[in-house]
Every structure is written in structure tokens, then in C-alpha cells.
């Protein structure tokens, strides 16, 4: 009996979440009412209040769920390993699978219709796992590793955001390969483009 109740709860909550996503395609979050959410989900207000106190609780649960899944996807390639391995031996496609699976949600959450610092929460989630699980080996003792980790995390976030912005133009395999290439790339020298400066 409990299992059927759990399924019913899951189904009901999912309907409210999908309804909110649908409405967010057209309206800002602050302009959406609970009446509109329940109408879109084909439930009544009483049912909504059984599961959520306010529409903010609904939105926060959606965000927490997707960020938890993002963290799990980030860790999936190595969470069951019994010894240290180089990142080049692993595949990061699980992370990009996650973004493809939730692409509509990410496009909406990163749009002007949702003003809840979603990008900051994405960064903090990835930063936490990066610092906890990834170790960079370098001969440059002068590097500030805290700044270096931030540099790497924001770089990967930028890559992901560009992928989302361009409507997931590249395949997940290509993106996974690029993350590995970028994470292990070492720049020998950096030059100013002399000719471009003097001809612009």
C-alpha cells in the first residue's frame, strides 16, 4: 500500500513541477499564481497545499533535485573506484547526459523569468565536488590553489553555459572530451596579438 501511495505522491508532485516549468516559458516566476499552477497541472489548490506551502517551496524543490542529480552525475564515473586514477582514464559523459536530460529545465532556470541565483547554485555545487574529489598535480608552487580551483570550475561552467546557449549543438561525447582536454591542458606561453592591436 505504501508503495502505491509513494507513486501517487511522486506523480502528483511531478505534475506540479511540469506545470510550473510550462508557465515559466511564458511568464516570470513572481507573476505566476498558485491558481495557474494547479489549473495547468489539472489538480486543485487543496492538493497543492498538501505537498507545498507556497510556490517558492515547489521551485526550491525542483532546484535542489536537479542540482543533487548534477552532483551525482559529476561523481558517477569515479564514485565506486577503489584507487586513484587520472581523469584522462574516465569518461565525463554522465555529466552531459544530465544536462541533456534536463535541458528544458536548465534553459528556463537560466532565463530572466527565474531570478533565484540559479547560476550561483550551479557553481557552488560543482565547486564543492571539484574541491572534494579532484586533485591537480603541478610543479608550480607559486599557484594559489584556491584561485586555481575557482578558475577551473568557472571555466567548465562557462563551457556548459555556452553549450546550453547554443541549444546543445555539440554531442555529449564531444563535450566530455573537451572537458578532459581543457582540464589537462598546459599553456606553454601566452602572447599579445601584436598585429591585431596595431591594425585595429
Automatic annotation (TrEMBL):
Keyword DNA-binding set for record: yes
GO molecular function per UniProt: DNA binding
Coiled coil: none
UniProt keyword annotations, A-Z: DNA-binding, Repressor
DNA-binding region extent: 33-52
Domain HTH tetR-type: 10-70
Protein name: Regulatory protein, tetR family
